[in-house]
Amino acid sequence: MSTSTAWNDFDALYDTSSKNKKTTKKRSIKKNAETSERKRKKTFQLRSLPMNSTVTEEELPEMLEAAPVPSKNNKEQLVAETQFFNKKNSDFWQRDDLSHLRPYDFPYIRSLLQTAPQDTLSPEDTRHKEQARSSIEVVTRSYEEKYLREPIGNERSCVMNENCQGMMLNHITDNKFILREFLLPSEEEEAKRTGQWPKERRLCILCKRAEIARAFINIRADGMGVKENIILQDYRNLVNISGEYMLEDCILSSPNIFQGLLDPVVLHVKSAYRVEKKNGVRHLQQWRMRYPQHREHFLCPGPGSK
């Protein structure tokens, strides 16, 4: 190979690499320019300013309506309104009238509680009843008789006030009184430990018996049962044990239909009580609630007889 030929090949190679470098540089510049252009397009640009507009009566007719006249309530009206809304917002047992009773709600409430009688009893139903029974407290006769009297000291009266069953005993003409509120054994222990009564007042033992009996009799009169997750009682009485009650004086669900009572509860009978005083405090004696070991003769004199 001659020297001229080698030199020409070197020039050709050098010229080609220079062209490639120029092409790469142009592509890079073009790419950077396109990227900058995209960034400029993505930036926010305010195209126009918001326009202010004027609203007229034709466009908004409500502007022509007169504003409400400021109320000028006197003091008496303000007190009346406050008492009205406080009464509506209070708990139903703190109201002294029947405004909270709405008869058209009763069918709906009844449907939530009742169910058709079932011919079969599944093991699951039995398990549910045993779990519910564990939350029902046992109350002895001597414990209940502690609450069959009027309140003394800082004890609170029945939440029913003048509508307490102690005031509804028609055969008692004198010395009627409102009984003290009834606390379950666990509630009484808590009150002794903390020195405070429950936040809400409770029913007395007579009113508690009356409410349970009312619900139980309504269910039985309808020929229905109660759903397995509903019970009417939170306590139970002992029966046919010395010093306690007779089963005949209590109410209990039918053996074939669950009617809301898992265990016996004394039936409220107004004529079963009479008033007696102990140390100047009025008590109710359950003179017709027999003891299991005592069989009362049908000629036994009643209260007040000589």
Topology readout:
Blueprint: H1 3-42, H2 75-89, H3 106-113, E1 114-115, H4 123-133, E2 137-139, H5 141-145, H6 185-194, H7 205-221, E3 225-226, E4 235-237, E5 250-251, E6 265-266, E7 274-278, E8 281-285
First-to-last CA distance? 160 Å
Q: Outline the biggest β-sheet.
A: 2 strands, antiparallel
Kindly state the percentage of residues in helix.
25-40%
Shape descriptor reads elongated
Rg measurement, Å: 43 Å
| Total E-strand runs | 8
**β-sheet strand percentage:** 5-15%
The secondary structure category is: mainly alpha
SSE sequence, one letter per element: HHHEHEHHHEEEEEE
Continuous helix count: 7
Low-confidence segments: none
Tell me the strand order in the biggest sheet.
1-3
Mean of all residue-level pLDDT scores: 76
Can you put this structure into words, describing what you see?
The protein has 306 residues and is mostly helical. It has a domain at 112-285. The protein is built from seven helices and eight strands; from the N terminus they run αααβαβαααββββββ. It has a two-stranded antiparallel ribbon. A two-stranded parallel sheet has the order 2-4. It has a two-stranded antiparallel ribbon with strand order 5-6. β7 and β8 (281-285) form a beta hairpin. The longest helix is centred in the N-terminal third of the chain and has 40 residues, at 3-42. It is elongated and about 115 Å long. It starts with a helix and ends in a 21-residue tail after the last strand.
